[in-house]
Structures are given as C-alpha cells and as structure tokens.
Design brief:
Helix content of chain B: over 70%
Strand order of the largest sheet of chain B: 1-2
Number of helices of chain A: 8
Helix content of chain A: 10-25%
Number of domains of chain A: 2
Bound molecules: adenosine-5'-triphosphate, magnesium ion
CATH topology of the largest domain in chain A: Rossmann fold
Largest interface: A-B, 26 and 22 residues
Number of helices of chain B: 14
Order of helices and strands of chain A: EEEHEEEHHHEHEHEEHHEEEEEEEEEE
Oligomer: heterodimer
Number of strands of chain A: 20
Distance between the termini of chain A: 31 Å
Strand content of chain B: under 5%
CATH superfamily of the largest domain in chain A: P-loop containing nucleotide triphosphate hydrolases
Chain lengths: 364, 304
C-alpha cells in the first residue's frame, strides 16, 4: 500500500539556550493511504506536537514530513491538503453552521453552486441538515463536534487530523461518535490520523497504533500486535491491565522458553531473542489467568492470598497478593448460577492459559 | 406566603435597593447633568459685554453657530469659518482614528501573541507616555518637528534637503500629535479583545486554506470587532474635543472645535456662542456614537 504521510527522523525542540525541551525525539512513522492511524500515549508525550507539525502549525526542528513522497515540512498550513478537527472544535463563532462547513471550499475558490452542493452533502453526512442556519453557539457539544468534522472533511483533504476529538463528549455520545468516525473514514476513504490518550478508544477504532512516551514512538502495530505482543514494559502497562512475573530462562525449545519463576514454579512462555540463563520479565494479561483451588492442577504457576474480589457485571476481578509482595490480577467471566467459591483471605493458586505468557524483549 | 405576596415583598425589596443607591444617583445627576443644564441655559441668553451673560433670552448664539451677520448690515450668511472648523475637526478626528487603528492593530496583535508573562511588560511600555503631562508631550513633538527641530537638523546635516521642511503649524502636525497622544487608547481595548481571542480559531482558518490576509479579514477582524469599535470611540471622541494639541502644534491658526470654544469664553467674550458650540459638539459625538452602536449591534451582536 502507498504511503500517505511519512515522518522521517522528526524532532521538535521548544525553547532556546539552556531551557530547551524536546517534545518529539527522532520519530519515524509511515502512515498508509486510507488508514485509520492512532497516536496513543499519556498526557504530555508529544502527540499534539507531532500532529501540529503534520498540520503545519509547528515546524520540525529536524527531519522530514512527507505527503505522498513530497517533503512538506516547511509548507505553510494553508497550502497543505490536510485538515484538522481541533480538540475544542474551534468553530468560527461569527458564522452559521453552513458557513463554517463551506469555509474551506470558499477559500479554495470553488464556485457558489459547488460550495452549497457540497455543504448540503456534508450536512447530510453528519446528520445536521436541520441546523444549517444556526449559529455555532446555538448547538450542543456533540453537534459542534459533527460540524467540526464536516468542516474538515468538506474540502476533501488527503489526510484528516483529529486531536482528541471525542474527549469532551460524555460516555454514550463518545461511543456513538467512535462508530460514526469509523463509518465516515470508510465512506470517504480519507487517511485519518487520530490522537487519543484513551487506550480502549485506540484499540477499538484503529487500523494501526503508534504508542508514544516522552516524545518517542515505542511501538507501531495493529491493535492486536500491541495488545498481545507489547514491545516493552511501558506499552504493556499502558495498554490494558498487565501482570508482570520475573524469572530465569531454563530451557528453550523453538519459540517457547521454559522460565523458572522466583516463586519456584515453572512456566512456558513465547519468546524471541532470549538465551538460557537470562533474567526475564513475563507478561500475563488478567483474562488469560485464573484463580484455582490450592491443591493446584498442572497449569498453576504461583500461589498467593486472595485479597479482593471485585464484581464488574460481565466479569469478576480477583486480586491476589503474591509472596514477593506484588499483586496479580485475574479476570474471569461470570456465568449464570456460578458464584465465587473463594473467600477473601484464603490461599489460592493462579493458573495461566497455555501460550498466554509472553516474555518481553530482552532489555525492555 | 402566597405567590403574589412573595412577589409584592420582592418588589418592595427592589424599591428599597433603589433607595440605597439614591445618594450616588443624586451625585451623578447633579455632577453630570447640572453643568450641562447651565451650559444649555447660557446658550439661550445674551452675551455680556465683558464676558458672562445677561439674563435675557436670545437665540443669537444658536444662529451664530452656523450663520454670521454681515459687518455693516444685518444680513445673515453661512458662517464659513465655523463650518470649516467643524469640518476640520471631524476630518482630523476621523484621520486620527484611522491612523491609530492602523498603527494600533498590529501593536495590539503583537502584544497579544507574546508569551503571557511578557505581555504585562509590553502593556506597561505602551502606557508610559500617559505618565507625562499632555502639554509636555506635545511640546516634545513640537521640538522634533519645528523648522530648527530634530528632524530638519538631521536631514539638513545629511544634505538630503536644502532648506527646512515646514511641518509645524500644519494639519499634518496636529494629526501626528493626536495620533501619538491617543494611540494607547486604541491599543488597550484592541489588546483586551485580542487577548480573549482563541488562537485555535485563527489556526482553523489557516488550516482551511485561508491565506494570512484572508484570515485577518475573515476571522480575526470579525472576532475582535468589539475591541475595534471601543478603540475607535475612545479615540474619536477626545480627538473631536482636542484642545492642547491643535493649540500648540496648529499654532492657533489651524483651529479645531475645542479651540474655537475656548476662544468664545476668552478673547471672544461670547459665552452664549461658546455654550451653543459645546452643545453642538456633544450632538456630533452623540450622533457618531449612535451610528457606531447601531452598526456593532447589527454585525457583532451574536458573539458569545
Ligand atoms: N509551544 C510550546 N513551548 C514549549 N513547550 C511546549 C510547547 N508545546 C508543547 N510543549 C511541551 O511539549 C510536551 C508535549 O506536548 P503535547 O501537547 O504534544 O502533549 P500531548 O501528548 O498532546 O499531551 P495531552 O494528551 O495532554 O494533550 C509537553 O511537555 C508540553 O509542555
Ligand atoms: Mg494534546
């Protein structure tokens, strides 16, 4: 597939003299045409800065930004066929909804007929036809969000940038807009670059995700890759809940290593790039582990004291305190008529599903 | 208590609140309208021979605002001199407003786009001229533009001109002086509205293919319009009544309304005419204000 946006060794340093701050540090990303690509990371990791450099509001200190192979790093924003949906929507308060949506087309010098035709089309796409004549101060937050989306899509940009567009909406509306964003991306065929710090949102919406931390990209991959095979401890912790176990590799057979845990039990884990005798960290997702009764069956790997049972409706979380002091969490789906047979404070074993344990890449 | 009783009670409370503010209202009434009424009254009286007024009704002053009597007979003709002065005042004030807007807009924009912690400093610098007496500031300008002043001396020394350029005692000199004096009155309200401007909206304009000039015209100016209107009013009104600047830099030859009025109370010894001129000036200001407010309501009334 063709590359829509190429980010090559891009850095952004704010400030001068001794008070410089590197917001984006030598980032390399290749975003494909037609892709729903997400930048995910905690607050302050440089997502907005990276997005603003793609939009043209900031210029990279170093590196190249390619749009279909052409370096646009120094091109002003009004020449880039890239549009942005701003976090606070940034609608023009002195214009009607329709005038907001038509603004980009008018600036591109489209004819009146063409503008009004396209505005109507966009109003329909975001289901805002009855509001065309309203002022932007006279519509709700969710509706403003739709107008912002329509305004950015109207000029048919090559790439659409979205900076946490859903963060101001309430839970239900956010879920609705997530689906609608996906639908619109599908219908328009435009490359979406989406910024969020909500990992669930990233997992459900994206074709691929770049996980960022402190201005660096730690891992790029599909939601599955990132969830199942986190590149390092940060990614594993940031995406979903994770348990960490430490141990030493005892034996390696093909892709599987047998690891002696500190507690004394052995566990087999998928691994790459480790050798016998290495000290390693193993990640186990809560839904891949289970609390079992103490005279443990074969798959049990460790023991501990059941500290807390949290009921979540669809499933129940068990918090188990391990001998080394850490807490191991398991998540089990609730079934009818089956109540938890484990009492808080009792001794339990933890069983891990086959192939569910994964060794983090050495050094990570 | 019944609904109506509560309402009656509330109404009584409101009345009492009015009573509480009555001393303040009384002062405002006396201080603002009292002198004006005196001025209005004087404008309908006869001029005393050595200034002051005679307690005798006469429309002469109002006729004198726009008409003049012939020197030898009683024929009335349009008072060209007065109208010319009125016209010059309005023209100079409009020009001052326009020029302060042209200089003040980029200045305010510059300050509003500085990092927040340095904006205070810039504003402080803008207000420094206010610390000096108006007269002294005006004489400073005089010093710069007179025939043997700074500008001419430098230009002569450089050999760029053969003889001094005459700048003092021209309308241009008055204009320059007023622009200098009133510029802060334009910058401050402009800054106040630009500071509130959400620059992400400006970025949205750039994002949607608007060139910098179009962003200025279609996004920034409409959004800071309240500041523009306020600044224009704040500059236009005092310009119209300016006295010191035209007096010093116009040399008493290029009069403005303010000087004309002063003349009637001083050498002219025609207090009624001075009063009538003052009221006329107020009427012009009022008319200008009404036009502005109407305009602002129509186009800018919807801002959140
Ligand atoms: N103009 C600027 N000058 C100096 N530092 C800046 C500037 N803009 C951003 N930064 C810094 O760069 C870092 C990254 O900021 P950025 O806005 O890209 O974070 P983010 O990942 O979008 O965070 P959030 O999720 O909170 O929006 C922050 O530490 C921020 O303080
Ligand atoms: Mg951000």
């Amino acid at each position: 597939m063709n590359e829509a946006i190429g980010i090559r060794d891009v850095s952004k340093v704010f400030g001068q003299g001794d008070t410089t701050f590197t917001a984006v540090a030598r980032v390399n990303i290749s975003i494909r045409e037609n892709e729903f690509f997400t930048l995910l990371g905690p607050s302050g990791c440089g997502k907005t800065t990276l997005l603003r450099m793609i939009a043209g509001f900031e210029f990279p200190t170093d590196g190249e930004i390619l749009l279909h192979g052409e370096n646009i790093a120094d091109m002003p924003p009004f020449r880039r066929p890239i549009n942005t949906v701003f976090q606070n929507y940034a609608l023009f308060p002195h214009m009607t909804v329709a005038d907001n949506i038509g603004f980009g087309l008018r600036m591109l010098g489209k004819s009146k007929a063409e503008v009004s035709e396209r505005v109507i089309e966009m109003l329909r796409l975001v289901k805002m036809e009855p509001m065309a004549g309203r002022r932007t101060s006279e519509i709700s937050g969710g509706q403003q969000q739709r107008v912002a989306l329509a305004r950015a899509l109207a000029p048919q940009p090559k790439v659409l940038l979205l900076d946490e567009p859903l963060s101001a909406l309430d839970y239900k509306l956010r879920k609705e807009m997530q689906l609608e964003l996906k639908r619109m991306q599908h219908e328009t065929g435009i490359t979406f670059i989406f910024v969020t710090h909500d990992q669930e949102e990233a997992l459900t919406m994206s074709d691929r995700i770049a996980v960022m931390s402190k201005g660096q990209v730690l891992q790029v991959g599909s939601p599955r890759d990132i969830y199942d095979a986190p590149a390092d401890r940060f990614v594993a912790e940031f995406i979903g809940e994770t348990n960490f176990l430490t141990g030493r590799v005892r034996k390696i057979a093909e892709e599987t290593a047998e690891v002696m845990l500190e507690g004394g039990a052995a566990i087999s884990a998928t691994a790459a790039g480790v050798g016998v005798g290495d000290d390693v960290t193993i990640v186990v997702r809560p839904e891949h582990a289970e609390v079992v009764a103490v005279p443990a069956t074969g798959s049990a790997v460790t023991k501990g004291t059941l500290e807390n049972v949290v009921y979540f409706g669809t499933d129940t979380h068990f918090h188990v305190r391990l001998p080394d002091g850490s807490v191991f969490v398991t998540r089990q789906q609730n079934r009818p008529r089956l109540s938890s047979e484990f009492a808080v404070g009792s001794e339990v074993s933890i069983a891990v599903a086959a192939d569910a344990a994964r060794i983090l890449r050495a050094g990570a | 208590m019944s609904q109506s009783a509560i309402r009656a009670d509330y109404r009584r409370t409101l009345t009492r609140r009015w009573l509480l503010s009555s001393p303040a209202l009384l002062i405002v009434l006396l201080a603002a309208t009292g002198p004006l009424l005196v001025v209005l009254l004087y404008s309908f009286l006869k001029a005393g021979p050595y200034g002051g007024v005679l307690p005798e009704f006469s429309p002469e002053a109002w006729i004198g605002v726009v008409m003049q009597r012939g020197l030898f007979d009683d024929t009335l003709s349009i008072a060209d001199a007065h109208l010319a002065i009125f016209w010059r005042s309005i023209r100079l004030s409009l020009e001052t407003t326009l020029l302060t807007l042209i200089f003040g807009f980029p200045t305010a924009y510059f300050i509003a786009t500085r990092p927040p912690n340095t904006r205070e400093l810039w504003l402080f610098l803008i207000t420094i001229p206010f610390w000096t007496n108006l007269l002294i500031r005006t004489f400073a300008i005089l010093q710069i533009i007179r025939n043997d002043g700074t500008i001419n001396t430098v230009l002569l020394k450089l050999g760029l001109i053969g003889e001094p350029i005459r700048m003092l005692y021209t309308d241009g000199a008055i204009l320059a002086g007023m622009v200098y004096v009133y510029l802060p009155l334009m910058v401050l309200p402009l800054y106040a509205s630009m500071e509130k401007l959400d620059f992400r909206i400006v970025e949205a304009g750039y994002d949607l293919y608007a060139t910098p000039f179009r962003v200025l015209r279609l996004v920034i100016i409409p959004l800071v319009k309240p500041g523009i209107v306020a600044g224009c009013i704040l500059v236009f009104i005092p310009s119209l009544g300016a006295y010191v600047t035209p007096n010093v830099l116009g040399g008493g030859k290029n009069l403005m309304i303010g000087n004309l009025i002063e003349l009637q109370f001083g050498q002219g010894r025609n207090w009624p005419l001075g009063s009538a001129l003052s009221i006329s000036l107020m009427a012009v200001v009022m008319a200008a204000l009404i036009v502005y407010v109407r305009n602002a309501d129509k186009t800018g009334g919807h801002h959140g």
